[in-house]
Every structure is written in C-alpha cells, then in structure tokens.
Write a structure and sequence with these properties.
By secondary structure, the chain is an alpha/beta fold. The protein has one domain: Metallo-beta-lactamase, Chain A, CATH 3.60.15. Helices cover about 20% and strands about 30% of the residues. It has an 8-stranded mixed sheet with strand order 3-19-2-4-5-6-7-10. Strands 1, 11, 12, 15, 16, 17 and 18 form a 7-stranded mixed sheet that branches. Strands 9-8-13-14 form a 4-stranded antiparallel sheet, with no helix packed on it. Strand 17, helix 7 and strand 18 form a beta-alpha-beta unit. Helix 7 packs parallel to helix 8. It starts with 5 loop residues before the first strand and ends in a 5-residue tail after the last strand. The model has no long low-confidence stretch (mean pLDDT about 95).
Length: about 325
C-alpha cells in the first residue's frame, strides 16, 4: 500500500449524533459548537439540528492546497440527514466520496438520500462486502432464543440508481488521493474487546455468529507534526484494536485525536469499559470525543479520567485539527 499523505488541516462536522449540546469548553480552540460557527440566525424557518440514534460525519481534509470532502456514514434516516444538512448549511455537491463504517441501519438510513443529493455520477461509496448481508441480534425470550432481524442495507443496484458506485473491499484503502485511510478488517488482538455478543449474519442459507462485526471499518488521518486522528463509526472492532491497526498500517504511533462511536453501552461490562479507558488514558490523545453508541457510563468514566482531553460529542459540533492557529 502507498503512503498515507500528511494533512495540514482536518475539519469534522457532526451531521448526526445521538445528542445535542449547545455548549463547549470556551478554552478549546479545536471544538466549535453549532451556534459558534453557523451563527445565531433569527430566521424561524431555518431548522435546528436534530439528535437521532445514528451517526454521520462530514470530513474535510486539506494537504498542500488540495482539499477533499467525504461523508462517513449516513445517520439512521433521510429525515435526520435532510434536516441537519440544511441546519448546518452544508453543500453536499462538494462531497467526493461516501464511506460506510458497517452495515447497521443507524449508519446507512440516509444513504440513498445523500447520494441523490450529492448528485454526482459514479460517486465512490466505500463499503465492506458483508454489509449487504442480512443481520440480526440473538435475544432470549420466554418462548426461547430468537433472532431479531435488522433492516437491510441498500443494494449495489439501488446505490447505482442514485448515482453511486459501490466499491466493496475487505482490505484497507487509501481514498481521496491518499489523504485518508479507510481501514479494512481490523484484527482482534486485545483480550477485553469482545465485539457485539449475539450478533448474527445470514450467510449461505443460515445464521452464523458474527460477534466480531467483522465489516467494521474506520477512517484514519495523519496530521503533520501531530500524529493520527482516528474516526470511528461504532468501534465494533474495539477502539484499542482500531488504534493498533492504524498505527501498524501507517507506521505512526502518535495518536492526536479519537472521534466517534466507541460502543461501550448495552451489554458491554464495566470491566471492559475500565480496561478501554485505562488504555486510552495511557495513549493520551489530545482530543477525545466519544459519540453515538459510547454510552453514559463510559462517557462519565472518560470525562473523570481524562478531563482535559474529553469533549462531549454533539450534533453540530465542528472539530478542527490544524497545524496553524485556530481562532
């Protein structure tokens, strides 16, 4: 694989997230709340950003006076996407590619609307081939164990009809002229990150265990003089596994920022949370933004252990990482 280019600046806008906060630490120059960068508009007809049970990040990368913009995931519905794109004043025609983190409904719900709104022919849509398969979650009921099926992701043909071209790969890929890295299947090397216990995939006519959620992929950027920025959708692979894989793929060990869903809610044990937070604290990123599926217990733990690095994830927040001064 060729070398990942080093960026001069990176801006990440939370188009969709599980929560909305009108406040940020005023001392932080690398985080701007919605009202700070969009402005206070007195127009009552302009929508406000809505929180929802999904994730979408608008990523703007710049290197050597070259710039590219991508969407990472597409929220849980087209309604959330449509409302929040308008509220944030974003121009989707500037998007060069879409990357899906994994094949769960809360990350592809607005995909077809987004591709259609971008309006480009053969827009690259990067995904893992398993994302097209039927998914389910094994649950116990009084009648016995059953599998709750999840919504199917749009097919390659449906993507094509809207103007996209599905690029399915299990391998890591350099995208948008080597400015960003999309990880491939992430090796599970930690002892405590168990994935999504009970997760199933329907393959070859039967339900098979996929607790690893093996299609989980993340975005990695390498900032000049700062190190790596890790951007995750749900971190079903485990955020520590993802960081280790990013370091291995890039040869860069410094971690400047971790932004995205960390999936430390639900069935995840407190022991797992403690171990993840302990390792993150040792890595000591300058910016830590747990979003989406991280869960309140893990957020509380992180904010207590890393108060200077922790920032509350929110719809409308803009995270700015730059080699120059940020005002």
């Amino acid at each position: 694989m060729e070398e990942l280019r080093k960026l001069d600046s990176l801006e990440i806008i939370a188009v969709a997230d599980n929560s909305f906060s009108a406040w940020t630490d005023p001392e932080r120059k690398d985080v701007k709340r919605f009202h700070k960068w969009v402005g206070d508009d007195e127009d009552d007809d302009k929508p406000l950003p809505l929180a929802g049970a999904g994730l979408c990040l608008h990523i703007h990368a710049t290197a050597d006076n070259e710039t590219h913009k991508i969407l990472y995931d597409a929220a849980e519905s087209h309604k959330t996407m449509e409302n929040n794109i308008a509220a944030l004043g974003l121009n989707l025609s500037e998007i060069d590619a879409v990357v899906l983190s994994h094949g769960h409904w809360d990350h592809f719900g607005g995909l077809l609307w987004a591709i259609d709104s971008i309006g480009k022919k053969d827009l690259p849509v990067y995904l893992h081939p398993l994302m097209f398969l039927k998914r389910g979650l094994e649950v116990k009921t009084p009648e016995g164990t059953k599998i709750n099926e999840m919504r199917l992701m749009p097919s390659a043909d449906e993507i094509a009809k809207k103007g996209g071209i599905a690029i399915a790969s299990k391998e890591p890929l350099l995208i948008v002229n080597r400015m960003l890295l999309r990880t491939g299947e992430v090796p599970r090397v930690t002892a405590h990150e168990e994935g999504m216990v009970g997760h199933k995939v329907f393959m070859n006519g039967q339900w098979k265990d996929d607790s690893a959620v093996i299609d989980d992929v993340s975005i990695v950027a390498n900032m000049k003089d700062k190190g790596l920025v890790i951007i995750s959708g749900c971190s079903h692979a485990g955020i520590i596994n993802i960081i280790k894989e990013a370091q291995l793929l890039t040869g860069e060990n410094r971690i400047h920022a971790v932004i995205g869903g960390l999936h430390l809610a639900g069935r995840v044990t407190k022991d797992t949370m403690h171990e993840t937070v302990k390792i993150l604290k040792g890595i000591r990123p300058k910016l830590l933004v747990p979003c989406h599926c991280t869960g309140w217990r893990a957020r509380h733990m992180m904010s207590g252990e890393m108060p200077d690095e922790y920032v509350e994830g929110s719809v409308g927040h803009k995270y700015i990482i730059s080699n120059g001064d940020v005002s």
